[in-house]
Design brief:
The complex is a heterodimer of chains A (291) and B (272).
Chain A (H helix, E strand, L loop, with lengths): L17 E2 L14 E3 L6 E3 H6 L15 H8 L6 E3 L17 H12 L5 E8 L2 E8 L10 H16 L3 E8 L8 H19 L4 E9 L1 H4 L8 E4 L10 H8 L10 H6 L5 E2 L5 H12 L4
Parallel strand pairs in A: 6-7, 7-8, 8-9, 9-10
Antiparallel strand pairs in A: 1-4, 2-3, 4-5, 5-6
Helix pairs in contact in A: 4-5
Chain B lengths: L1 H20 L7 H8 L18 E8 L2 E8 L5 H6 L7 H16 L4 E7 L6 H5 L2 H14 L4 E10 H5 L6 E5 L3 E3 L3 H8 L6 H8 L3 H6 L5 E3 L10 H20 L3 H14 L3
Parallel strand pairs in B: 2-3, 3-4, 4-5, 4-6, 5-7
Antiparallel strand pairs in B: 1-2
Helix pairs in contact in B: 1-9, 4-6, 8-9
The chains are: A alpha/beta (291), B alpha/beta (272).
Bound molecules: zinc ion (ZN).
């Protein structure tokens, strides 16, 4: 694909043409009816749950948040300009496990309204110019395919070009197995893109949501200046079930939770969703040398 | 019916290729290192927690230059296989590798990485000590290292556990090696929820190194005389030596700023 083509909207707008989230970017959680907290099962009116950022007011459980909703939660009101990086259709292996892989992607696109597992936006966050790169677990488990990798890499490059801090929200099951080795290459690709952000000495803040595993954790998710985890998020390289099966060891209490990783020195802080914008904003302001 | 037989046959062939790459008598990292270098002195430990025997490394002489050699070692018999954890590194292995790469950079010594792992170790301790963090750091280290780097995939390049040592300026691979996003057993467990369907996963994933070459993770294949490196270890090791030295000769002639920029551009595009 011609990279000079850069960003285009689905309506074939010119490079870097911006769009506010339209009706195609619908939030993952329903906005009508009621939603049950996955942990304590308490039911909420959907609007109220969304207003609480998908956090249960009863038990504090942090529910799944879609990428479009993430952008809305983190960006200052009316500042987010969603970037629709068109990455086309990819099927490096001609993969078919009953459903051809391109068809799986098409279905995910239809279901989520997203183009790939990453959605990016320019915005200001607590007044700071930022590039937001948010993963969506609803899009094939947030898996890191070559399209998702390309979007993240382009977001990094745009952050460098426009001197914006990079804020990534990572939630992923890991590699996109259907792309095989091309999926593995995304770890290198995204790392190379992060290296550009590092070289430009721009702040990079990574927020780890539930769950975050595999090649995403083992690359850009933890290459940030500051790693923030959401309460209760499960984060690691290999999944707990895989480890249990492979080693027959009993997993310790709270294994791979954000709090467990904090205790082991792997994340900088665990921050409740309602405090994310303030925390990230303060950090970027300090790193940028502003009062 | 005949298509079922064809499918079965295709899967059998694909998994046979994986088994060939896992042949216990293929050349291992320590064997290659002792055969192609002089004065190799193993340096152990990550200076942080421990010494991971799945990753070995140290300075040596190779083709008239001083180099840093880092390899993933699978072991050759039941005892050494257990000692080296079947080539599955813990975080300490990657941190040792990064320590040695930084040292190589300091002394302007090229780095030679021998990749041979089914995957990074999956275990409680590895997670507690940041397996993902160690791999992510090794990736960034290799991308920015200001000294020439050559990686050689000896037999099995599995997952991020292999990639962490495989972002060389040049990546060579033995012809019958495999390079995969995860071992076929793991892929089968994820894709079909059944690790037993590993042959099906192997057929679907095209694990041969030519796939990795096609997407830009491998540059050059080192031929193996039939039936494979396990039957011709010394020939294949000599070919590895020749290929590594030839590539180092070329890389050492490129100004370092240009080399690092080329490397970062290359991996920015890999898998596009
Ligand atoms: Zn609850």
């Amino acid at each position: 694909m011609d990279r000079a083509d850069g960003v285009t909207s689905r309506r074939q707008a010119p490079r870097n043409r911006l769009q506010a989230p339209g009706p195609e970017l619908r939030p993952t959680a329903p906005t009508t009816g009621t939603v049950a907290c996955p942990r304590c099962k308490r039911r909420f009116v959907a609007e109220r749950y969304a207003a609480d950022l998908n956090v249960c007011s009863e038990c504090g459980h942090h529910g799944v948040v879609g990428a479009a909703q993430r952008i809305a939660q983190l960006a200052d009101p009316n500042t987010a300009e969603t970037l629709l990086f068109e990455v086309g259709d990819r099927d490096p292996l001609g993969f078919d496990d009953g459903v051809p892989y391109p068809q799986r992607v098409a279905r995910a696109r239809e279901r989520t309204g997203l183009h790939e597992a990453f959605l990016t936006a320019r915005a200001t966050l607590a007044g700071n110019p930022v590039m937001l790169a948010c993963m969506d677990f609803a899009f094939l488990g947030g898996s890191l395919g070559s399209g998702a990798g390309e979007i993240f890499a382009r977001a990094c490059e745009m952050a460098v070009e426009e001197r914006r801090a990079l804020v990534a929200v990572c939630t992923s099951g890991g590699a996109r197995m259907q792309e095989g080795i091309a999926s593995l290459a995304q770890m290198a690709r995204c790392s190379a893109a992060v290296a550009e952000v590092i070289a430009a000495r721009l702040p990079y803040i990574s927020i780890l949501g539930d769950p975050c595993f595999g090649g995403v954790t083992a690359s850009f998710a933890v290459q940030a200046d500051v790693i923030i985890a959401e309460p209760g998020a499960r984060i690691g390289f290999a999944g707990g079930r895989v480890i249990e099966q492979a080693t027959h060891d009993k997993l310790p209490e709270g294994f791979q939770t954000a709090e467990f990783l904090l205790a082991h020195g792997m994340v900088d802080t665990v921050v409740e969703r309602s405090r994310l914008r303030d925390t990230v904003g303060t950090l970027i302001r300090i790193y940028s040398g502003r009062a | 019916m005949s298509s079922t037989i064809e499918t079965t046959e295709r899967e059998r062939i694909a998994f046979a290729a994986v088994e060939l790459a896992r042949h216990p008598e293929r050349p291992r990292a320590l064997q290659v290192i002792s055969a192609i270098t002089g004065g190799w002195t193993e340096l152990r430990g990550d200076r942080l927690f421990g010494d991971d025997r799945a990753v070995v490394g140290g300075p040596a002489r190779l083709g008239g230059r001083s180099v840093m050699v880092i390899g993933q070692e699978k072991g050759t018999d039941p005892m050494t296989r257990a000692l080296h954890n079947f080539g599955m590194p813990h975080p300490e292995g990657y941190r040792k590798a990064v320590r040695l790469m930084r040292q190589a950079e300091k002394f302007s010594m090229p780095v030679v990485c021998l990749v041979d792992t089914p995957a990074a170790h999956a275990g409680i301790g590895a997670e507690e000590r940041g397996q993902a963090w160690a791999i992510a750091d090794a990736l960034l280290c290799m991308l920015g290292l200001r000294t020439p780097t050559v990686s050689v995939v000896l037999s099995e390049g599995g997952s991020g556990g292999a990639l962490a040592l495989a972002l060389g300026d040049r990546v060579l691979a033995l012809e019958n090696a495999v390079y995969t996003v995860a071992p076929p057993e793991t892929c089968a467990a994820i894709l079909y929820r059944d690790a037993g369907q590993r042959a099906r996963a192997a057929a679907a994933l095209r694990p041969g190194v030519e796939t990795a070459q096609r997407i830009g993770l491998v540059d050059e294949l080192i031929p193996e005389p039939a039936p494979g490196a396990h039957a011709h270890a010394s020939l294949v090791i000599a070919a590895i030596r020749g290929a590594v030295i030839r590539n180092l000769d070329e890389l050492c002639a490129i100004p370092i700023d240009e080399l690092v920029a080329q490397r970062q551009r290359r991996y920015r595009e890999a898998g596009e």
